[in-house]
Amino acid sequence: MIAKKSPLLVFGQVINSLFGYIGLFFIIRFVGLQAWGYLSFSLAFIGVLSIVGDLGYGTAHLRYLSSGEYNEGVCNGTFLTIRTVQTMVTIGIVLGSLFVWIDILHRGFESNVEIYTIILLLPYFFFARLKDVPVIYYNARLKSARMSIPQIIEALVRNSLFILLGIVYLFRIPGYNTVGAAIVMAIIYSFSYFMFFLISVLFGRPWKVNRPSMDLFKKYTKLAYPLALAAVIGSVSGNIDKVLIEFYWHAVATGAFASLQRISGPIATFSGTISIFFIPLLMKSRGSNDKKFKGDISAFERIISIFILPLVIIFIALRVYVVNLWSAALIPYANILIFLSIASYLVAINSAYSSSLVARGLTNQDRKDYCCHAYSEYFPGYAPDTTRYIRNTLLLSGGFRRCRQYLYCPGFRGNSIQNHCGKGGKHEA
Questions:
Q1: Does residue 150 have a cis peptide bond before it, meaning omega lies within 30 degrees of 0?
Q2: pLDDT, tens digit, 9 for 90 and up, residues 309-332
Q3: Helices then strands (H, E): number in the chain?
Q4: Could you give the CA distance from residue 264 to residue 346 in angstroms, rounded to a whole number?
Q5: 3-class secondary-structure state, position 105
Q6: From CA 166, how far away is CA 182, in angstroms rounded?
Q7: Is 251 helix (H, G, I), strand (E, B) or coil?
Q8: Confidence class of residue 176 from pLDDT cuts 50, 70 and 90?
Q9: How many beta carbons lie within 10 A of that of residue 310, not counting itself?
Q10: Contact at 8 Å (CB) between 39 and 116?
Q11: Going by fewer Cβ within 10 Å, which terminus of the chain is more open, N or C?
Q12: With 0-12 CB in 10 A as exposed, 13-18 as middle and 19+ as buried, what is 386?
C-alpha cells in the first residue's frame, strides 16, 4: 500500500522542494537575509504562541476517521468546530501579546516591519490551520492525489511570487523598496495558503458535515489529552530558536538559521510523504497478530531510513558547498546544517513508532516520550555561561535531544514496543 500511495506524494514533495529552493535562492541572493529574517521571526512568533493550535485533536480526528467508528459527517463537523475555535483563540493570543508588549510594557521589536509582518501573517495562520480539515480527511481515506495537488499549487504560487519579488529587487525596478520585502512576503504567504485551503475544499465536494457531537468531542479529548503536551512542546520547540536568535543576534542571523532549516527541510518532508499513511495503515493491520504489527513498524522505519539517509550524508559531508549554492553569506553558518540534518533524520525514523502508539491507543506512552523530549529540550546540560547555554540549546539540543530520546525513552525501539504493547494493543504491566 505504501508503494502504491507514496510515489505521487513523493513527486509532489520533489516539486515543492525544487520550487522552494529556487524561491529561497532569489530571496536570499537578491532581497537579502535581513528581510528573510524578519519574515522568519514573524512566522516563529506566531508559532510559539499557537500552543492551543492543535493540542493533539488532529491526530485524534485522523484515528477516529480512519477507524470508521463514527459517521463521517459527525467527525468532520466536530473537528471543524474544534479547529475553528482553536484558530480564533490563537489569533486572539497573538494580538493580545502584541498589545501587551507594545502598548502596556512599551517594548518593541528590531523593526516596525516585524509588527506589520506578524499581523499580515494572521490570515496565513488561519487558513493553514483550517486546511487540516480536508487534508486529514484525505489522509484517512488514503487519497494521495487530493493531498498532493493543492500542496503543489500552493508551492508554485508562493515561490513564483518569491521569484518575481527577487527579480524586482535584482533589476531595481522603480518602487521596489516602497514597501518592505518582509511585508510583501507575508502577503504572499497569506494568499498562497488561501489558495491551498480553497483548492483542498473544492477537491472534496460534496462534503459531509453534520452537527458536532459532544460525545465524539469527549472521545477526541480523551485521546488527544495525553498528546497535548507533545503538541505544545512541538509548537514551542519548533519556533523558539528563531525567536531567541532574533532577540539576541537580530534579523540577519535569524534569516541565516531559517535558511538552513529550509535547506534541510526536504529530509523531513520526504520522510513525511512516506509516513503520512502510517496511522491509517496501522489501524487496518491492528487486528492482526502482534508479530506482524511490530514487523510492519520495523519495515516502515527501514523504508524511511533507506530513502532519506543519502540526503543526510550529502548535507553533512558537503555542507559548505551546499549552502554556497544559495549564498556565500551562509558559509559562516554551514556547521549548523550538521545538527539540523541529524535532528531531522532522528525525527523521521521516530515517526513509525509514534504512529504505532497512536494506532494502539497508547497516547499516554507517547506523552512520556515527549516528556523526555521536554527534558532534553529545556535542560540540555549544565552551562553556566549564558551565551554557551543559548548556543547549545539552539544548535545542539535539536540533535542530541532526539538521540537521547531514541536511546533512553520507551516506545522508540522495536523491543520497547514489545515491552509496552501486548496483544491487541493493550498495555502490559
A1: no
A2: 888 999 999 999 999 999 999 999
A3: 19, 0
A4: 13
A5: coil
A6: 12
A7: helix
A8: confident
A9: 9
A10: no
A11: C
A12: exposed
